[in-house]
Amino acid sequence: MPFHEIFCFKNVEKLQLVLIGDPRRRIQVDLLEIHKILRCSCCSKSGNALLPSRHDSSIMYTLAQEHGDLINLHDWFQSFKTIVLQHQNKRKQKSKQFPPPKKRKDMNGSADQNEASVQARFCRAVTELQITGLVRMPSKRRPDFAQRVAFGL
User: Fold this and answer.
1) Rounded CA gap, 51 and 144, in Å?
2) Distances (CA, A) of 2 to 6, 113, 141
3) pTM score, two decimals?
4) C-beta separation of 145 from 71 below 8 A
5) How far, in Å, CA of 135 to CA of 67, rounded?
6) How far, in Å, are 91, 118, 151 from residue 61 at the CA level?
């Protein structure tokens, strides 16, 4: 029977959605529901809670959902830093039971290095969100604010 592979669709919008897709929406869903993709034991236990083990871009996008149109970069960084260093602070509390090491200068150097590492991770995550088109970087008029471009799902 010739042409038995031909189908007739009346709803063109659904067909276009399936064939073309909606990449921005898919990126947003993936960033918000990263625990479904990774299927790691820590993420499945906590659900949608922000954990330091999540990808930095996912943490940043979830934090961006708490803000309106404009996001203060300093507040965003402080929130990110709190989440990322959350696991390390728990380790420090456990280690306080033991006597402190005698070398104090090395501890300050590692704290500065840790701060620089968190800041570099923050910058990389913001850049990734900018590349995906979810965040617009600050303008000359308001250099301390980033603007959300995509809202809601």
Assistant:
1) 26
2) 9, 70, 65
3) 0.71
4) yes
5) 12
6) 26, 16, 11
Structure tokens at 125: 């995550």
Residue with tokens 């390390």: 88
The beta-carbon contacts of 83-86 under 8 Å, at least 24 apart in sequence, are 83/50, 83/51, 83/52, 83/59, 84/52, 84/56, 84/59, 84/118, 84/121, 85/52, 85/114, 85/118, 86/51, 86/52
| The two structure tokens encoding residue 72 | 């203060």
pLDDT digits (tens, 9 = 90+) for 6-65: 877 788 888 887 788 778 888 888 888 887 887 777 766 666 678 888 889 989 998 998
Rounded to 5 degrees, what are φ and ψ at 35? Answer: -65, -30
- Residue 101's identity, in one-letter code, is P
Asked if 70 and 145 touch (Cβ cutoff 8 Å), the reply is yes
Terminal Cα-to-Cα distance of the chain (whole angstroms): 44
- 3-state secondary structure at position 25: helix
